[in-house]
Specification:
The complex is a heterodimer of chains A (310) and B (368). Chain A is of the alpha/beta class and 310 residues long. Chain A has helices at residues 40-47, 70-75, 92-96, 98-102, 107-120, 125-128, 138-150, 168-185, 196-202, 220-225, 230-236, 240-246, 272-282, and strands at residues 2-11, 14-24, 29-33, 55-60, 63-64, 77-81, 156-160, 188-193, 205-210, 213-218, 265-267, 286-291, 294-300. Chain A folds into 2 domains: 2-243, Rossmann fold (3-Layer(aba) Sandwich); 249-309, Alpha-Beta Complex (CBS domain Like). In chain A, the strands form 3 sheets. Chain A has a 6-stranded mixed sheet with strand order 6-7-8-3-9-10, sandwiched between helices. In chain A, strands 2-1-4-5 form a 4-stranded antiparallel sheet, covered by helices on one side. Chain A has a 3-stranded mixed sheet with strand order 11-12-13. The longest helix of chain A is centred in the middle third of the chain and has 18 residues, at 168-185. Chain A is globular, with a radius of gyration of 21 Å. Chain A starts with a strand and ends in a 10-residue tail after the last strand. By secondary structure, chain B is an all-alpha fold. Chain B folds into 2 domains: 2-141; 152-363, MetI-like fold. Helices cover 75% and strands 3% of the residues of chain B. Chain B is built from 15 helices and 3 strands. In chain B, strands 2-1-3 form a 3-stranded antiparallel sheet. In chain B, a hairpin with a 7-residue loop joins strand 1 and strand 2 (29-31). In chain B, helix 13 (277-311) runs antiparallel to helix 15 (332-363). The radius of gyration of chain B is 25 Å and the shape is flat. The chains are: A alpha/beta (310), B mainly alpha (368). The interface between A and B is medium-sized, with 29 and 24 residues. Bound molecules: adenosine-5'-diphosphate (ADP) and magnesium ion. The site of adenosine-5'-diphosphate (ADP) has 11 residues of chain A, from strand 2 and helix 1. Residues 40-41, 192 of chain A line the site of magnesium ion.
């Protein structure tokens, strides 16, 4: 759990972040969302003290982050950035082993850990551990970046637009892979993004910032269905519901039972937005959902409206 | 390029090969190659270009052979010319030799370019050429006759040359490295350093040497204590000062460029993972900057070999001594006695440091 209290950062007369109060819940992914220049990166970098706040404090697991030396603090927090920043002169394995090496962990145990992590991020250790960063595609490099951040098993992971520089296909794949990893490991993740789809898709919580202040903090459903202000509604846009559906498989909305006769069939891994599109196209308000040949149940268009309908 | 190299070689085979003089200063007569040798030399002149039409990868073979033939004929023809002559007689290389070697050199260089993976084939001529030199085959060439007469003194001047280059290089690295590290961390200072370094670099070394001598002698005249400590406008101290300052520029400039060239994302990641400033420096910045930085040291070393030759002008010794002595007495053999080893030294230093750079670049994961 990360608690931020009255956090402030000034640069001379200009204020990058002001009076920010926020709790990033344990084991959840919080997306720090907002337009460019609203102070997301500044907030993130104050958590691991790459930037020192000019006011307020940050508690990590109840402890003020200022009691630790900055380097010691940073070694206990994973860090992933858009530029990836792999060390070009080191192999993939050496890159991943960076923090365990800084902590003086046993070399052999680290080597084994590196292989596990490469597996976790979907890279075959036998193929990739000896490669140089220059030999990797952007997506592969950021997979290594994620593995490197997880190497010392930190409870907290800070990510600054981690998938922002990837092409759309690689970004989709990596977002899926990362969602699985996060589901398995349950880290406390703070992910800066200006991409609304990404925030709605990956965030358990979304913190929407505007000009250095917190505009709204809540679940994606909260922001979509109960926007705290005109700004929130405008920022998410009229198609926010569709964006959210796009990030989920239709199987997430399935309920058991038989659909109305003649309902079109879709596969369970189809995304919910496409499922809605099928309903519109076929003129049916229910769909049969299958996994392979097996019938999972059905989904009705009311189900896709999320909790907003009530 | 290969046909272009064939032209001077053909001309060289036909032009006078040896200049025979009754003594080292008297006018003499020009001797051509015997027809059979002219024919062989001409064939080897054309062979690299002809080979290039068929197999570019094999050009190195005829090019190397041509170069070696040139060296070998230089030794053979000078020895033949001196048969029956008095001791004072000198047989020196005439225009033919120089043109032929120039063309063959260009051809071997081009052969190396054609094989990017195996550049070293352009240097295959070196061991046999050295063997010819050390084996005494070139002993009758006038330059080596002068060299033998100079003997230990020549070795001394070579040593002095190397000492000058080595000390200036060492000093400039010693000063330049910390200075570059300091400057690279400060954007304004770094810009200023780069500006000054680029401006001064355009000055010819001779001019810089001259510019430094004036203030140094003025200083020595004004402060007698300094003069007693050996500092004056003439001698080793001003030469070394000028050379160090001159070499400092590439070391400093490349250092700043190399350190600032380390991607900011890499530095940020290193910081974010909890590396201390010194860990960042040694584990990230130094290895990433080293190949480019070493390029600066190489430039400095090559420049210094040349500048050190000029240093003889202000009495610092070195191979330049022979160049200026030779210029004064119009004895071209003496000039060559200084100039040829200086040129070879520069090539050698350049090649060795280039190889080190390439190796480091590959080890450190750059595309070298
Ligand atoms: N070192 C700095 N000096 C002055 N202003 C800065 C500095 N870093 C960031 N800012 C300003 O702070 C504001 C927030 O920046 P940032 O946190 O990077 O925004 P973003 O939400 O795009 O990540 C911006 O207006 C930016 O111009
Ligand atoms: Mg940002």
């Amino acid at each position: 759990m990360i608690q931020v209290e009255h956090l402030e950062k000034r640069y001379g007369d200009s204020v990058a972040v002001q009076d920010l109060n926020l709790t990033f819940p344990e084991g959840q992914l919080t997306a720090l969302l907002g337009p460019s220049g609203c102070g997301k990166t500044t907030t993130l970098r104050m958590i691991n003290r790459l930037i020192e706040p000019t006011g307020g404090r940050i508690l990590l697991g109840g402890q003020d982050t200022r009691i630790l030396k900055p380097e010691a603090l940073r070694r206990s927090i994973g860090y992933v950035i858009q530029q990836i920043g792999l060390f070009p002169h080191l192999s993939v394995a050496q890159n991943v082993a960076t923090v365990p090496d800084l902590l003086g962990r046993d070399r052999r145990a680290t080597a084994q850990r590196v292989d596990e992590l490469l597996d976790l991020v979907g890279l075959d250790p036998a193929v990739y551990r000896g490669k140089r960063p220059a030999e990797l595609s952007g997506g592969q490099a950021q997979r290594v970046g994620v593995a490197r951040a997880l190497a010392a098993d930190p409870p907290v992971l800070l990510m600054d637009e981690p998938f922002g520089a990837l092409d759309p296909l690689a970004r989709d794949r990596l977002q899926d892979a990362f969602r699985d990893i996060q589901r398995r490991l349950g880290k406390t993740v703070v992910m800066v993004t200006h991409d609304i789809d990404e925030a709605l898709r990956l965030g358990d919580r979304v913190a929407l910032m505007r000009a250095g202040r917190l505009e709204q903090f809540g679940t994606p459903d909260d922001l979509i269905h109960r926007p705290a202000s005109e700004f929130v509604r405008d920022f998410l846009g009229e198609d926010a519901t569709l964006r959210q559906l796009a990030g989920r498989p239709v199987s997430a909305f399935v309920r058991a039972g038989l659909p109305s006769p003649g309902a079109p069939r879709v596969q369970a891994d189809l995304n919910a937005r496409s499922a809605l599109s099928v309903m519109l196209r076929e003129g049916h308000d229910t769909l049969e959902v299958l996994r392979g040949e097996e019938l999972l149940g059905h989904v009705a268009w009311q189900d896709l409206r999320g909790e907003g309908h009530a | 390029m290969l046909w272009l190299a064939a032209l001077p070689m053909l001309a060289g085979a036909w032009l006078p090969w040896v200049l025979l003089r009754p003594n080292r200063l008297a006018p003499g007569e020009y001797l051509r190659l015997p027809p059979a040798w002219v024919a062989l030399a001409a064939v080897l002149a054309l062979l690299p270009a002809l080979t290039g039409q068929v197999r570019r990868g094999l050009v190195w073979l005829p090019a190397t052979l041509a170069l070696l033939l040139g060296v070998w004929l230089l030794g053979g023809r000078t020895a033949a010319a001196l048969v029956g002559q008095a001791d004072f007689a000198r047989a020196s290389a005439a225009s033919g030799v120089w043109l032929y070697l120039l063309g063959a050199g260009v051809a071997t260089y081009a052969a190396g370019l054609a094989l990017p993976e195996r550049r070293w084939v352009a240097w295959l001529w070196l061991p046999p050429a050295l063997a010819l030199l050390l084996g005494g085959h070139l002993a009758d060439w006038s330059v080596l006759v002068e060299g033998r007469n100079e003997g230990p003194r020549w070795v001394q001047e070579l040593g002095q040359h190397l000492r000058l280059v080595g000390s200036a290089l060492g000093l400039s690295v010693l000063i330049g490295v910390p200075l570059a590290v300091w400057a690279a961390g400060r954007a304004r200072v770094a810009d200023a350093v780069l500006g000054v370094a680029n401006a001064v670099q355009t000055l010819p070394s001779l001019a810089l040497l001259g510019l430094l001598i004036a203030p140094l002698s003025a200083l020595a005249n004004a402060v007698p204590a300094l003069r007693e400590a050996g500092i004056s406008g003439i001698g080793v101290a001003p030469a070394l000062t000028a050379m160090t300052l001159y070499a400092l520029l590439p070391v400093l400039r490349n250092g700043v460029v190399a350190l600032r060239g380390v991607p900011t994302g890499v530095i940020d990641a290193a910081r974010g993972m909890g590396m201390t400033a010194s860990q960042r420096f040694w584990r990230v910045q130094v290895p990433l900057a080293l190949p480019v930085w070493l390029g600066g040291v190489r430039q400095a070393a090559v420049l210094l070999v040349g500048v050190a030759a000029v240093a003889a002008l202000i009495g610092a010794g070195g191979l330049g001594t022979y160049i200026f002595k030779g210029l004064q007495s119009a004895a071209s053999d003496l000039i060559l006695l200084g100039a040829v080893p200086a040129a070879l030294l520069a090539i050698l230093v350049d090649g060795a440091l280039r190889a080190l750079e390439g190796w480091l670049g590959r080890r450190l994961g750059r595309a070298a």
